[in-house]
Design goal:
Elements lengths: L1 E6 L23 E4 L2 H21 L4 E5 L6 H13 L7 E5 L1 E4 L9 H8 L11 E2 L10 H14 L5 E4 L21 E4 L2 H7 L12 E4 L2 H5 L3 E6 L5 H9 L17 E6 L11 H15 L8 H6 L3 H6 L3 H13 L13 E6 L4 H15 L3 E6 L9 H14 L7 H19 L9 H21 L7 E3 L17 H14 L3 E5 L8 H18 L25 E5 L13 E4 L2 H9 L1
């Protein structure tokens, strides 16, 4: 089986196919596509700021509907920056949040009340009386009246001027799960299975996720004068295509926005990746999809296969489908890299965000690089302690207590160790769900991950001395939600780069979540490389690994950046630059690791 990697300077030739006819689009609502999430966030924040200032000039309030989640955080940060640095006055803004879990204490880590305060309200001058968020801490008997009062408050404020939205993987807006009626209003709902699974990491397990939530209804959202739905990351691409290209349906509540007179979808390029736009990358993706769908080799596809599978627009854009299939085939064949095509005898630094991303996501490539005689070192950027179960801490501490005699520890020393171990065991026994661990327990969980990481790379031929544990500060909150990347994070990475002087740098490419650990680690690495270049520690090299004249850097002595992916989010066939074939024996070794 092949393992795919995207290198900054592709080993294979790029496809030169270009449309010969006009492209086609199937979008049933306005779509704006941005190069990255930051650009999208700035545009939305500027849109809000302009409306706020125009309303303030005529003495009117601006009524704003707000979501939570990782997608709007960039908008909130930009508005906070504009308030602090550009004197943006938000005192005339009235806000209504979409939803809140039920039951939910407003002070809990997962509460949307707390989320909004920490990410927005505590940093701007919106009056407290202008802020409205559904309450999850009321008695169930009061919920219906609370929902009615929430609707009345929106009406009293003059209705929503602008509603910001995210979208769930099931297509929900707010917590309007599949099956929600187009005319629904603020109400208590039962959460969909997909929604619960997606929230599980925030709650340290599905069993801790509240089963219900209070949410604005679809009808409430559609009453807003303007709606902007924001989505980032390729994990949102499939549902975005359904919401934008398919007819409105109760199964995808975001699709109802097609019927709104002033609703737009703001997407980064990853979230827009599945939309039907027949440029060269989309044509390549469609050919690969068709080959898999009809179970035919790419070169055996016929024009009739395109028509039978509703790809008429593609055949219009590319009349010579045989030529298109040949180019796609040659493009894919040229991306297969055998052992001799990969680096040999060079310095390789693999950045692994958690202490398992390396062997899980690029174990085959890692094994090949070791086998090629490269000097390979792995840098584990975070402790990964959040992913360690409390029961594993108890198990390891019991092992310590049972092994003291064999380790030659007796008397007062052994008693002291046993007492400390029991203290930590009792703490994890008595923890409430999602309670933050003590710093000592966080360290113990980190040590568990570190020993696992060393054991894994030893399977692939490396040693403990080849592992670096950076334990970056941004991760050390004890919670799923992390701090922003700071100077200390960047400096730790830069020091390692100066120490190792790598020819090749491998970076985890699972960047869907703008505020996820992988993207944040990528940000630290990118900043460290830029600082290194500015300081003269390295020859100039572009972010994509190309030389200054734009030619691929191949395996040059300057650092070449490779983005790797694996088990949790694999590179799609049309996006991978390098495919590394794995034998059955190599696959067994990878599984052992």
């Amino acid at each position: 089986m092949p393992e795919s990697t995207a290198s900054a300077a592709a080993v294979a030739a790029r496809s030169r196919t270009r449309p010969t006819g006009e492209g086609t689009q199937r979008e049933r609502a306005p779509v704006l596509i941005f190069d990255d999430p930051a650009q999208m966030s700035r545009q939305v924040a500027l849109r809000i700021a302009r409306e706020v200032e125009e309303r303030r000039a005529v003495g009117e309030n601006f009524v704003l509907g707000l979501p939570t989640g990782s997608t709007p955080v960039g908008v909130y940060r930009e508005l906070v920056r504009m308030h602090r640095e550009e004197d943006l006055d938000l005192s005339g803004v009235v806000t209504f949040n979409l939803d809140e879990y039920f039951p939910m204490d407003p002070e809990r880590l997962q509460s949307y009340h707390r989320f909004m305060r920490e990410n927005f309200f505590d940093h701007v001058n919106i009056p407290e009386e202008n802020i409205h968020i559904p309450r999850g801490d009321i008695d169930r008997s009061e919920v219906e009246a609370h929902c009615v009062a929430y609707e009345h408050a929106i009406e009293k404020a003059g209705g929503l001027d602008l509603m910001l939205l995210g979208i769930g993987r099931s297509g929900h807006i707010g917590f309007n799960e599949p099956g929600s009626d187009k005319g629904s209003r603020t109400r208590l709902v039962v959460l969909d299975e997909i929604t619960v699974k997606d929230a599980a990491s925030d709650f340290f397990g599905e069993e801790n996720v509240p089963p219900e939530a209070i949410t604005m209804g679809v009808g409430t959202i559609l009453d807003a004068r303007e709606v902007i739905l924001m989505a980032t990351g390729e994990h949102k691409a499939p549902i975005i295509r359904e919401a934008v290209e398919q007819k409105p349906s109760r199964s995808v509540t975001a699709s109802y926005l097609q019927e709104h007179p002033n609703a737009s979808f703001y997407l980064d390029r990853a979230a827009a990746g599945n939309l039907t736009r027949w440029d060269a990358p989309a044509a390549k993706r469609a050919v690969i999809w068709l080959s898999e769908t009809v179970d035919k080799a790419v070169l055996r596809l016929e024009k009739a296969d395109f028509h039978r599978n509703h790809l008429h627009g593609l055949t219009q854009a590319y009349p010579d489908t045989d030529a298109l299939c040949r180019e796609v085939f040659e493009d894919l064949r040229g991306r297969i890299a055998y052992r001799g095509d990969l680096p040999e005898g060079e310095r390789v630094l693999v950045f692994s965000p958690h202490p398992d991303d390396d062997v899980i996501s690029m174990g085959g490539m890692l094994s090949t690089l070791v086998g090629n005689g490269n000097d390979v070192e792995v840098a584990y950027m975070t402790s990964g302690s959040v992913a360690v179960f409390d029961r594993d801490v108890k198990r390891h501490l019991r092992f310590v207590n049972m092994s003291l005699d064999r380790l030659g520890l007796t008397g007062e020393t052994a008693d002291s160790v046993r007492e400390a171990a029991m203290e930590h065991i009792n703490f994890v026994r008595g923890k409430a769900p999602a309670e933050i661990d003590t710093s000592a327990v966080q360290d113990l969980k980190a040590y568990i991950r570190y020993t696992e990481a060393i054991a894994a790379i030893e399977v692939l031929g490396l040693h403990a001395r080849d592992a670096h544990f950076l334990d970056l500060p941004f991760y050390k909150t004890g919670r799923v939600r992390k701090d922003p990347i700071g100077p200390a994070d960047v400096e730790a990475v830069r020091e390692l780069l100066a120490e190792t002087q790598p020819d090749h740098i491998f970076v985890a490419g699972d960047l869907s979540d703008p505020h996820g650990t992988h993207r944040m680690c990528y940000k630290a690495i990118k900043q460290a490389l830029e600082d290194r270049e500015r300081s003269g520690d390295a020859d100039a090299v572009s972010e994509d690994g190309a030389s200054e004249d734009g030619a691929p850097a191949a395996f040059s002595p300057t650092p070449q950046i490779w983005l790797y992916r694996g088990a949790w989010q694999e590179w799609e066939t049309h996006r991978a630059d390098v495919f590394v074939p794995l034998s059955k024996a190599e696959l067994r070794k990878l599984r052992d690791a």
